[in-house]
Amino acid sequence: MSFGAKLRRAYDVLAVVQKLEVYQPPRPEEHIENFTAFVKNLETLNVSANNLGNQYKFAVDQRTEAFRSGNESMEKSLVQIRGAVEAQFGKKSTQMTIIAGIIRKIRSTKLMKTPADPTKPSSEHAISDSQRSFGSSVQFYNDLVTSLESFPEYVPSNEKIRIRTLRERFNNLHKLNDNVMSTAQDLQVGVVDRKALFEELKNRVNRIKAYVKAQYGIKSEPYSILKKLRF
């Protein structure tokens, strides 16, 4: 049963109790105005949780594109950087040895797949492993850029692999990696909060059903409608 379906049924409960001639439940939480405010707040929280899920997916896709799949990705820049260093300093130069070594470290760092749903308990370690793998790759890339900065003669004609552009790429990679972790944490909090409120919804509806049964009887039309609404 989806959260959206439960929310729709909460409004059905409201529709029933609003038509009752006598509706005076003992707790203020089940009074029409308070229950209405609660359901509306629940609707807002549900939309927020869904939006956080979309933001997480977008953050993951952005990071994947920047690291791997995009035309301007970090991975695709390595070939061009290696070529530029070899062209400038020679294949057997010290500079080439340094850069080739760092590139090997980057390529040997396996980027762990990010869980599609970070709210599952089984995803906790996968998220941590993924963040570490991407974080290590970012730091190696920073080592690469820092090394190139120490070579005054490294001024390639290709703007995409000049120091300024590479430094901007590093900063963006670092930001995208942090964003995945941040959105994952926000989503986890949002889902926990939503679950707690939907549990509260079930509790309140059960109390409303009990009141209507007590006020109008087990065979009354209002109770017959309410008892069919599952949460």
Count, helices: 7
Number of strands: 0
Report, as a whole number of angstroms, the end-to-end distance: 8 Å
Spans of at least 5 consecutive residues with low confidence = none
Rg for CA atoms:
28 Å
Mean pLDDT: 95
Domain count: the total is: 1
How would you classify the helix and strand content by structural class? mainly alpha
Strand content: under 5%
* Global shape: rod-shaped
Report what the structure shows.
The chain is mostly helical and 231 residues long. It has one domain (3-227). The chain has helices at 3-17, 32-69, 74-89, 94-108, 124-149, 163-216, 221-227. Helix 3 packs antiparallel against helix 4 (94-108) and helix 4 runs antiparallel to helix 5 (124-149). The radius of gyration is 28 Å and the shape is rod-shaped. The mean pLDDT is 95.
Briefly say what this structure is.
By secondary structure, the protein is mainly alpha-helical. It is built from seven helices and no strands.
Layout: helices, strands, pairs:
Layout: H1 3-17, H2 32-69, H3 74-89, H4 94-108, H5 124-149, H6 163-216, H7 221-227
What key attributes describe this structure?
231 residues; mainly alpha; 7 helices; 74% helix; rod-shaped
